[in-house]
Amino acid sequence: MANLPRRIIKETQRLMSEPVEGIEATPNEANARYFHVIVHGPKESAYEGGIFRLELFLPEEYPMSAPKVRFMTKIYHPNIDRLGRICLDILKDKWSPALQIRTVLLSVQALLSAPNPDDPLEHDIAELWKRNEREAIKNAREWTQLYAKAG
């Protein structure tokens, strides 16, 4: 971690000493800009009980540019595509250097609690979410059971 900017070191130390409930973020030993992230599906959401693996990478330009975040665990969600890319404004045009890794992870967790079918990456899933939310939630729960279970 010696050649990392001070901000990244401080943010990493804070993540380790004051973890966010339901989120584990561990820097990679070989590259401290790369984090292994686990997000537990929020209670009372379609993803409850799921353990979702993500990767988070801090580009050289961080904090002037947003971290790169993607789901490694398959998920049925209108804002997350088959490659795990996430449609989230703060990862794109609403990024600000005032935001931190912690903020990004909390926003991803919030997206699991409240999918936004009006700004989709997966149009088929978004259409079903709008047309028949109960069916979409059932599918999300099934995928959570299939792909995001511990063990």
Automatic annotation (TrEMBL):
<comment type="similarity">
    <text>Belongs to the ubiquitin-conjugating enzyme family.</text>
</comment>
<dbReference type="InterPro" id="IPR016135">
    <property type="entry name" value="UBQ-conjugating_enzyme/RWD"/>
</dbReference>
<feature type="domain" description="UBC core">
    <location>
        <begin position="3"/>
        <end position="149"/>
    </location>
</feature>
<keyword id="KW-0067">ATP-binding</keyword>
<dbReference type="InterPro" id="IPR023313">
    <property type="entry name" value="UBQ-conjugating_AS"/>
</dbReference>
<dbReference type="Pfam" id="PF00179">
    <property type="entry name" value="UQ_con"/>
</dbReference>
<keyword id="KW-0808">Transferase</keyword>
<keyword id="KW-0833">Ubl conjugation pathway</keyword>
<protein>
    <submittedName>
        <fullName>UBIQUITIN_CONJUGAT_2 domain-containing protein</fullName>
    </submittedName>
</protein>
<dbReference type="GO" id="GO:0016740">
    <property type="term" value="F:transferase activity"/>
</dbReference>
<feature type="active site" description="Glycyl thioester intermediate">
    <location>
        <position position="87"/>
    </location>
</feature>
<dbReference type="GO" id="GO:0005524">
    <property type="term" value="F:ATP binding"/>
</dbReference>
<keyword id="KW-0547">Nucleotide-binding</keyword>
<dbReference type="GO" id="GO:0016567">
    <property type="term" value="P:protein ubiquitination"/>
</dbReference>
<dbReference type="InterPro" id="IPR000608">
    <property type="entry name" value="UBC"/>
</dbReference>
